[in-house]
UniProtKB/TrEMBL annotation:
InterPro entries: AAA_lid_11, AAA_lid_11_sf, DHC, Dynein_C, Dynein_C_barrel, Dynein_heavy_D6_P-loop, P-loop_NTPase. It holds the Pfam family Dynein_heavy. It comes from Cryptotermes secundus. Signal peptide: none annotated. GO terms for biological process: microtubule-based movement. Residues 252-388 form the Dynein heavy chain AAA lid domain. This is Dynein beta chain, ciliary.
């Protein structure tokens, strides 16, 4: 408990898992080889799952697990259920452990003010600003002297001192450390110090002296999670008086409540990762307050509710001002189109499935309505499918195992007499990769095969060159490391970094710099690289366009899609800037095609996230439960002129290279939909080239 209260929620389970594993290893209740298996998650490659609800990689994990018989239900038995339930320690309990030599250190989170806890407890114990025994100093330029004087007074007379934002005064921190140490003995027994600071963004940016951290009780305070808590919190910014201030009271209250829902949903949606938002934005209470002021002014100045103006101001300026990604802006505006419309005032509008907008009531009534009517927390409240939660929990557990894995000891002795040393393990990996990597593409020979350099041929050249650039560096760095491991070369920092990455099954940084975006571990990444090489080798032997092109296999899929437009424009003598791509989803998979289409290209290797493609009806449909990334059939992509584009009943679907979305954006494919497109926008529907 002592350590956990000073950790953020996202780190608590990682910490307790690491502690548990270490204790179990010491007590010899588990074998280090079993732990290694659990953390590495070795897969049997190239297996096909026999059941719908398990992906091939999950099945590959089960196949390798079936070779071990010691695994059973494990968490509650060894950890105990209480470690799985999160609960916070009351501040007054933590305070009991504080003393003149043990200050309390608050690690700040945006949107939370821990000072309130200190003030409330102070009031109960008669320590307040009014009584002159409570000193509150917000650190910044020139405040260091004020802080030192407050500490001098407090230590002598038994007062409390609050030092806020000490991370802003880097140069003064050593002096603060000395002063805390000086007064830790011989001070008045009632003297207490409370400090607060923001966490450092990177390990290198840590500036709080170790002495301060070691002597303090560290406490994190994070904002509440879930829609219910956040909707209450948004509404808490107002009061009964605020609800009555507008002459159009009914309209004002209805829109204000809907704005609070919007505020809560955009802030909380972040937890779903890139399916929630492509980037993380600092939406804050200021955005909500200023939006309510704008709402008040516009309702007072207009006879009718100016819905369009309000949506524009909230979505493009107040909240939209933070947003830098076009797809995120579309999402923000789609939310406002759903939540800000005349039905909110005149009819029946549901803010989320099962949550109708409240009837006209007072301030207390709105809070009560949230408690009574809000459905339990689920992705539905955000317009997302329940699968989004599976994805978010999977990412969390992958992160937990990866972090614990990186914390394990490396030397053979510490891992319980393992037979293979880390060096030997790395040597095996080096040998295996070097053995499987083919020769570089001979660019001169390849270029001489071709009479006409068509747009497709140029794409193939570029891909071969990029592949040489990557595999060349892989071979160079591996051979160098091999010599280092044999003792024939001095091990450099770069070689050590490469060795570490290979041991941890991570793709080394010097390779990813030359590669394509990927979220895979090294073994899966290398298997995928070999498939890409094979595809390129086939294509570059005769330069005949494959019957179906593996779009995910390119370093630069955009160049291939552009080539489709270029070759159509050349053939039909049309200007390239007037062209666009049309995507016709076929009803078949790649095995069913024996030749390329008359126009454009057939492509495969696309996955849908957030929904699925219905082959029979040829439209986007709701996902099936536990099908996170259903495969798309082959898509015929051809170029047409922009004036021929039919945008009716179409969802403009972004295509990304990986689940991180954002910077891996490739293109937009228009897909048919019977539902209105906003449904798929809120559900975060996208096509991915790799999952």
């Amino acid at each position: 408990m002592y350590t956990s209260r000073g950790l953020f929620e996202r780190d608590k389970l990682i910490f307790s898992s690491q502690m548990t594993f270490q204790i179990l290893l010491m007590n010899e209740e588990i074998m280090s080889s079993d732990l290694d298996f659990l953390l590495r998650f070795p897969l049997q490659p190239h297996v096909v799952s026999p059941v719908d609800f398990l992906s091939n990689s999950s099945w590959g994990g089960i196949c390798s697990l079936s070779a071990k018989d010691e695994f059973r239900a494990f968490i509650e038995e060894k950890l105990g259920a209480k470690y799985v339930e999160a609960r916070t320690v009351e501040f007054s309990k933590s305070f009991e452990e504080a003393s003149p030599s043990t200050p309390i250190f608050f690690i700040l989170s945006p949107g939370v003010n821990p000072l309130k806890d200190v003030e409330d407890l102070g009031k109960k114990l008669g320590v307040t600003l009014g009584n002159g025994n409570f000193h509150n100093v917000s650190l910044g330029q020139g405040q260091e002297v004020v802080a030192e004087q407050a500490m001098d007074t407090a230590a002598g007379q038994g007062h409390w001192v609050v030092l806020q934002n000490i991370h802003l005064v880097k140069k003064w921190l050593p002096a603060l450390e000395k002063k805390l140490e000086h007064y830790s003995q011989g001070s008045h027994p009632d003297y207490r110090v409370f400090m607060s600071a923001e966490p450092a963004a990177t390990p290198a940016a840590h500036i709080i002296p170790q002495g301060i951290l070691e002597s303090s009780i560290k406490i994190t305070n994070e904002p509440p999670t879930g829609m219910q808590a956040n909707l209450h919190k948004a509404l808490d910014n107002f009061n009964q008086e605020a609800l009555e201030m507008c002459s159009k009271e009914a309209e004002f209250k209805a829109i204000l409540f809907s704005l609070c829902y919007f505020h809560a949903v955009v802030a909380e949606r972040r937890k779903f990762g890139p399916q929630g938002w492509n980037k993380i934005y600092p939406f804050n209470v200021g955005d909500l307050n200023i939006s309510v002021s704008v709402l008040y002014n516009y309702l007072e100045a207009n006879s009718k509710v100016p819905w369009e103006d309000l949506r524009y101001l909230f979505g493009e300026i107040m909240y939209g001002g933070h947003i830098t990604d076009d797809w995120d802006r579309r999402l923000c505006i789609s939310y406002l189109e759903e939540l800000m419309q005349p039905e909110l005032v005149d009819g029946e509008l549901t803010l989320a499935p099962g949550f109708p907008a409240p009837p006209n009531t007072d301030y207390i009534g709105y809070h009560a309505y949230i408690d009574e009517m809000m459905p339990p927390e689920s992705p539905y409240l955000y317009g997302l499918h329940p699968n989004a939660e599976i994805g978010f929990l999977t990412t969390t557990s992958e992160n937990l195992f990866r972090t614990v894995f990186e914390m394990q000891p490396r030397d053979a002795g510490a891992s319980g007499g393992a037979t293979v040393t880390p060096e030997e393990k790395v040597k095996q990996i080096v040998d295996e990769i070097l053995e499987k990597l083919p020769d570089d593409f001979n660019m001169l020979e390849i270029m001489n095969k071709v009479e006409e350099r068509t747009p497709y041929v140029i794409v193939a050249f570029q891909e071969c060159e990029r592949m040489n650039y990557l595999t060349g560096e892989m071979k160079r760095s591996l051979k160098e490391l091999d010599l280092g491991l044999k003792g024939e070369l001095t091990i450099t920092g770069d070689m050590e970094e490469l060795q570490n990455a290979l041991f941890l099954d991570q793709v080394p940084r010097i390779w990813t710099q030359r590669a394509y975006p990927s979220l895979q571990g090294l073994s899966a990444w290398f298997a995928d690289l070999l498939l890409r090489l094979r595809e390129l080798e086939t294509w570059s032997t005769d330069f005949v366009l494959p019957s179906s092109v593996w779009l995910s296999g390119f370093f630069n899929p955009q160049s291939f899609l552009t080539a489709i437009m270029q070759s159509t424009a050349r053939k039909n003598e049309l200007p390239l800037d007037k062209m666009c791509l049309q995507c016709d989803v076929t009803k078949k998979h790649k095995e069913d095609f024996s030749s390329a289409p008359r126009e454009g290209a057939y492509v495969h290797g696309l996955f849908m996230e957030g929904a699925r493609w219905d082959i029979q009806q040829g439209i986007i449909m709701e996902s099936r439960l536990k099908e996170l990334f259903p495969t798309m059939p082959v898509v015929n992509i051809r170029a047409i002129t922009q004036d021929k584009q039919d945008m009716r009943n179409m969802y403009e679907c972004p295509v990304y290279k990986t689940r991180t979305r954002g910077p891996t954006y490739v293109w937009t494919f228009n897909l048919k939909s019977k539902d209105k497109p906003a449904k798929w926008t809120l559900a975060g529907v996208a096509l991915l080239l790799q999952v």
